[in-house]
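Changelog-adjacent note: as of this version, every example in the card shows the full chain rather than a window. The one below runs 349 residues end to end.
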Amino acid sequence: MNRLNCASTFNISTLNLFNYLQPPNAFYQFDNIYSDTEWQRKVTWLSNCINELQSDVIAFQEVFSPDILKQPLNQLGYPHFVCLDSPSVRDGYQYSDPVLALASKHPILDAQLLTADRTLFHHQDLTQDFQFSRQPLLVSIQLGQLGIIDFVVVHFKSQRPTLTPPDIHQVTSKTNPGCTNENDCTENIMGIWRSASQRGFEANVLYSILSQFRAKTCRPCIILGDFNQTISSIEFDCFFALSPQHPSHRNRNDESLNQLHFYDSWELYCEQFDSANLQWSRPATHYYGAMGKVLDYILLSNEFAPNSGGYLSVNQYHTYDEHIINPNYQTDHLSSDHAAVRIEIGIIK
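Full-length structure tokens:
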């Protein structure tokens, strides 16, 4: 019997690739083009990172060159690869709107891009033109003794202010990103709110889609990727509102306990230890200057939570951040501005 089919533990990872685009193409701006040497260093770094992660499944964000990404992954032992979306291309070489991808050592049974169900628009106060900033990628994979697991790769709306069309040129044309007058500051604040609102809608729509999907499949589900904000933010409250730990749980009936809710893999991992230092000991996955935040997450459905009768467990949790906190310029300056997150999951024995 195939060794992969007999396995009972699996490593799952997520990584933001940060402008993974082969030259002579440009990312975002016409002059953002890697030299051949720079591109080779980025590819080499990624190969080394993947070898270090030793994962069964890896989710990727900020993919501009999916076909180019697929080649080294196959050589590294990931014969199964899926990317169903395409970035935007201007003038044949200037790329924007990077997409999501997933690589697996195990067979991919099904894959689809998720879109908002129009029936949700009335209930969630969505406008008819609502779209995900990056369409979530749902991939169903057969993981040995664990059975079929549904993976959802996400990259939620960034924290950059969303500007209204009349203000885009006015604000972005300034060389100083700070507010220079009251109108600019007001628009910047409103733009930040619009971005947060978009993230919140994306999260709530995704939760509704997954709830309906899970009602049909009754399978474990894993959401992983770049959330672009900490999961304690109100935008993501929908994922945890039915969790027994959530403050609103005392008002829920017994039926709600059977509904889909998610758990932070870090917290599930730490439940087997003293959780007194849970918050301060968690490594950041992204830094803005000297300030670090956790923006990259792996969320797990009820099946992984012991207090929900779960039969699966989180055995390990690792943050791969050496290229950020202690970088070697020669090898790391073209790596990623995000850390990779890896967990090991398995069957509770």
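Structural remarks: The chain has one domain: 9-347.
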